Amino acid sequence: MKDVLKICVVSVGLVFGSHLDASAETLSPERIQSELIGQDLQGRMGLLRASLRYNTNGTIEMRSFVGTGGGTWELSDTGMCVDITSGPRQGEECLTFTDNGDGTYDVSNGMTLVQPCPSGHTNFSRQASRLAAAQSDTPPPHRHCARDRGREASCLLLPRSHLPYHAGQIGRLDCRTSLLRPMLRASVKSWAGFHVERESRMTGTPTLDPAYIVRSEDELRASFPPTHDIAVKKCLNQIDKHARAFIERSPFVCIGTQSRDGSADVSPRGDPCGFVKILDEKTLLIPDRPGNNRLDTLSNILTNPEVALLFLIPGFDDTLRVNGRAELTRDPELLAMMMVNDRVPGIALAVHVREVFIHCAKALRRSRLWDAECHQDRSEMPSLMKIVLDQTEGAPDDAAEQQRLDEGLEEEYRRTMY
Predict the structure, then answer these.
(1) Helix, strand and coil percent figures for the chain, each rounded to 5
(2) What would the DSSP string read from start to end of 293-308?
(3) How far apart are CA 307 and CA 298, in angstroms?
(4) SS3 letters for 45-86?
(5) Element spanning 406, H or E
(6) Residues 172 and 136: beta-carbon distance below 8 Å
(7) What pLDDT digit, counting tens, does each position of 41-95 carry?
(8) Confidence class of residue 342 from pLDDT cuts 50, 70 and 90?
(9) How far apart, in Å, do the first and last CA atoms of the chain sit?
(10) 18 burial type by CB count under 10 A (0-12 exposed, 13-18 middle, 19+ buried)
(11) Which CATH number fits domain 241-364: 2.30.110.10, 1.10.260.40, 3.40.50.1110, 2.60.40.420?
């Protein structure tokens, strides 16, 4: 497989705390003007991560997980004075900036800033920072390690396990030897964060390289930023008013279960909106409607009661996740609550809630799941009946016979929906 990687990266590394050394130098107003003004910077203060820009017109723009903010700045004799008028931290203060000599700046208000890489450089300082935090060491600076057709490329000399997946082959040994597999072309974009474009020209079938398999949670978490405090705090142990409103609107839920031996299964369940009943703030009730009688979900619950639920609402990009323990009930009074078309389910799942939290909209927005322009024509694939027959007994060659079977399945749907 021949890969050509186009990696367009700016500094996304946020160093963990201050790392002043003997070479640290306080920036003069002239250096602040030349090195920080008009640049897309990344900063961290405690749990807060922000993208920051001191615009040349004297305004400030900030973006973070908790929202946006802004204000104005002006240079002073010793540094910069700012007036933050919107965002999570507002007020006036005068700041000084200390150059740590590795592309990072410590600010007198406790924030650490990371400057974009010089043109043509690749900066993996996020991974470097996590590694340094684990080893109580200073992150290595940007380093040149190869040239690609006369253009400089650079990477931090870190083990492969501490580089992001898209970094491909640029591990310690590859930087020292050959970058022909793949070749790197590094350039800087004028926005905070990083963007990767991968163009692959393959001469054979790609295979899974064991060298890149993640084998421990420590190795996994070293490749990601720490979980944001809000993402932890939003996890509740009961159904609150917002979760209740979401469940009452939802006509669809996926149920994840595991068998005794750990084999996993996910099953979709759907009904009119609000079909999942809320008995109390800790208990949900899900009816079991007629299906194929494989009983995967129900039998799994009998041997391993741990379940995970994912609620969707048509038109909503956010989802609701619920984790807990389930048991099966045939209580006639409870089953009667879930009657549809005068038919009562024969059994129901009672889920005792342990965790519940709203999940962000990114997945559904990326997929454009509810966007009618992205809906696909079902006729472009064989019918369900033909697929099943192809996979089992063999579908008939006669088109009319196949159509008769398809129509029979639709009639079965209408007759046995409940």
Answers:
(1) 25, 35, 40
(2) S--HHHHHHHH--EEE
(3) 11
(4) ECCEEEEEEECCCCEEEEEECCEEEEEEEEECCCCEEEEEEE
(5) helix 399-416
(6) no
(7) 888 776 666 788 899 999 998 877 666 788 999 999 989 999 988 876 688 999 9
(8) very high
(9) 52
(10) middle
(11) 2.30.110.10
| Pairing status of strand 183-187 against strand 2-9 | parallel
How far apart are the C-alpha atoms of 124 and 103, rounded to whole Å? 12
Are 282 and 238 in contact by the 8 Å Cβ rule? The answer is yes
Nearest to 103 by CA among 165, 42, 28, 169: 42
User: What band does 351 get if pLDDT is binned at 50, 70 and 90?
Assistant: very high
Nearest to 78 by CA among 94, 91, 89: 94
Share of the chain above pLDDT 90, in %: 53
214-230 as b/e: b if 16+ CB within 10 A: eeeeeeeebeeeeeeee
Residue extents of the structural domains in the chain: 2-187, 241-364, 378-416
- Answer whether residue 322 shows pLDDT above 90: yes
**pLDDT for 88:** 65
| Alpha carbon distance 279, 284 (integer Å) | 6
Higher pLDDT, 156 or 391: 391
Average pLDDT rounded to a whole number, residues 105-128: 64
Which pair of structure tokens corresponds to residue 416? 């046995």
Between 225 and 277, whose confidence is greater? 277
In this predicted structure, what is the pLDDT of residue 395?
A: 93
Structure tokens at 380: 């472009």
| Residue at 172: amino acid letter | R
Question: What is the CATH number that goes with domain 2-187?
Answer: 2.40.128.640
Name the helix (H) or strand (E) containing 409: helix 399-416
Percent of the chain at pLDDT above 70?
Answer: 71
If one compares 88 and 393, the residue with the highest pLDDT of the two is: 393
Q: How many helices (H) and strands (E) does the chain have?
A: 11, 22
Q: 10, 40 in Cβ contact below 8 A?
A: yes
Banded model confidence at residue 115, pLDDT cuts 50, 70, 90: low
Q: Which residue has the tokens 């979401």?
A: 246
